[in-house]
Amino acid sequence: MLASRSVTRQLVRNPRRWNHAAAASPPLNSVTEQDVAHFAKFLAPTSILSTIGSTPTPSSELSIYNNDWMGKYYGKATTVLKPKTTEEVSKIVKHCWERRIGIVPQGGNTGLVGGSVPIGNELVLNLGNMSKVRSFDPVSGILVADAGCILQSLTDYVAPHNHIMPLDLGAKGSCQIGGNVATNAGGLRLLRYGSLHGSVIGLEVVLPDGSIMDQLTTLRKDNTGYDLKQLFIGAEGTLGIITGVSILTPSAPQASNNVILALPHFDNVLPLFKQVKKELSEILSAFEFIDRTAYDLAVKHGQGRALNDDEVEGAQCFVLVETSGGKREHDEEKLNDLLENLLTADEPLINTGVLSQNPAQFSSLWALREGVTEAVSKEGKAYKYDISVPLATFKDVVDQTRERLRSKGLLHDDAVMHVMGYGHVGDGNLHLNIVAKAYTPEITDAIEPFIYELVASLKGSVSAEHGIGAMKTHALHYSKSDVSIKLMKQIKQLMDPRGIMNPGKVLEMN
Ligand code: FAD
Ligand code: 2HG
Ligand code: ZN
Prior knowledge:
binds flavin-adenine dinucleotide, 16 strands, 7-stranded antiparallel sheet, single chain, alpha+beta, binds zinc ion
């Protein structure tokens, strides 16, 4: 259930979406005692958490599965199932299909759009007990793993083989590879290694009727008809449950360096990006942006190493540049030359740059950027918009949003405390965060559809990487044409005609 406003209100506000509605499915059924007894026939007792049935679990034990990471979305699932094998997942789904019970596939529950918790009477199917690596080929770098493997544990697994995962994100200690694939997570390495649509080689998926689609190939090339796995990458659990992932892991770079650059004006970011790309070329692996508000908040909440006062003085924003290459001396030389050129230019684009000198400093500089989400959550309640807009408009979008809240009388310590921007400049992805004391309908109404209209006017996307979830179903039309939405609904209807897979997420079906 949404904490801050009702679904009905969202529907009324955008009546045109009804044009595409498929025939309304019959309502989904709630889990009964008989259902729980059925699951107990093939699941271990520890795989069933249910407040109903012969041995009820206290509802407090279900709360971590019912509440999302931000404390913004919450569900009321009575039953959480944690299967250990694909066959168990298949049996659960087959039963839910026959009984018309809704299922919310859940990974690490770190999603930021309310996709991983129920909105009605669905059960939660958590993949946390499926966490085995199935195979790794150190020659091809192809890793095959259960969907429930934590991203960090996979990074640790491939590290001794001199490989890395092609994605990295702040939630790596909790998010699962299945959740990453289901959300098509972007993160900090996309600039270098591209999206999961490229690095995922194959998938094993339990379809809504319980059948198992085994496309867990380790072939780099397979051109035999439709590339079905792509449908599940970014489907946010609405088309099936990913149980296994085959993914290409790149060779670990022999040398990684980073530097944080303090800029006097946002206007310098674009020319800086051009210069950095030109000078660092093949060794550039990340170009991340944080504005001053985001930086100050990261420091306030102890994320990473704060720069000295003289280093941050006069800085309007910061850019973190990472290089990853094959030879440390060569990369360091290039980075040092870049810094020198930047600092000695007639009209310098930066005030200063702080280069990491050792692995601890390297991690600490990254923490300033990666830790912003954590810092924001410590500061208050966050309204998060992960948008794609032209890079030149990043600051303007943040400023216009702040002005909008000011004009509505909502920019003060008891309502909205901060409006900030940070994100993946290299990918044109801005994270606009509005940090408030609490989630309130007044704030929601002030920023929506304002932000979506602004994004649409800039021909951007309402979701660059976090997805649609429960949060943006009503906003999908700002970024997808009528024809595209109609086709998406037809695909959903074809694959999940009973509407049991993550109902109410991504698409409004009735
Ligand atoms: P969950 O949150 O459990 O689920 C997310 C969605 O995927 C839900 O719709 C769920 O139903 C579905 N799902 C989960 N597992 C499966 C499965 N096995 N099969 C089918 N559907 C499934 N995202 C980015 O893109 N880039 C970032 O840089 C980034 N940084 C983050 C930093 C922090 C601190 C946090 C809290 C989140 C961040 N995110 C980021 C959000 C993000 O989407 C992820 O954290 C991650 O990809 C979600 O994985 P998860 O296992 O937690 O999935
Ligand atoms: C990031 O890039 C994540 O740090 C999270 O995508 C962004 O919290 C956010 O808004
Ligand atoms: Zn991001």
